[in-house]
Specification:
It is a single chain. By secondary structure, the chain is mainly alpha-helical. About 80% of the residues lie in helices and about 0% in strands. The protein contains seven helices and no strands. Helix 4 (about 75-85) packs across helix 7, helix 5 (about 85-110) runs antiparallel to helix 6 (about 115-150) and helix 6 (about 115-150) packs antiparallel against helix 7 (about 160-170).
Amino acid sequence: LISTIVEMLVTWGLGLWIASRRLPGHRIIGPVRGAVAENPGFWKFLVGAKADVTLTEAPVSLIPLLIGWVLGPAATGLYTIALRSTAVLAQPAMLLGQAAYSELARMAAAGDSGTALRKALVHCVAVAAMIACPVTLLIMVLAPHIAVWMAGPKFAAAAPIMMWLATARTVAM
């Protein structure tokens, strides 16, 4: 929680500093009168963006807290080791999603909701699966060793959790 608050303060501080340097003569801090009138759909966008961030970020913080509350700190440690070791599966999907998003959005905006869009989407899913499946199998085989390499012999019990998380991340991808 503290690191999230510090990150937010640093982000806002750097944003204000850069804005003041790049927008000389403009008021950076102050009332925002007229912003809603000048930007139709502002509140809808703001609520949607905030809901997206909240729903995306909340599980990252809440799941370890819930595990610690119900099962104790040792279980939280095992979960954290397993989660970090399977993070490698999320990276290709994230990169592919970012790369494909603009093309898929362009196709959808052009009114192409038929075969070409479906073909592009299937192609993206196939590429993600071709990346994720071998990595998942590798994690399954090496899970006990990965846990020990990452955190030491006391964390070897993270291997089964790692296998479940790898499978879940692959399915989610």
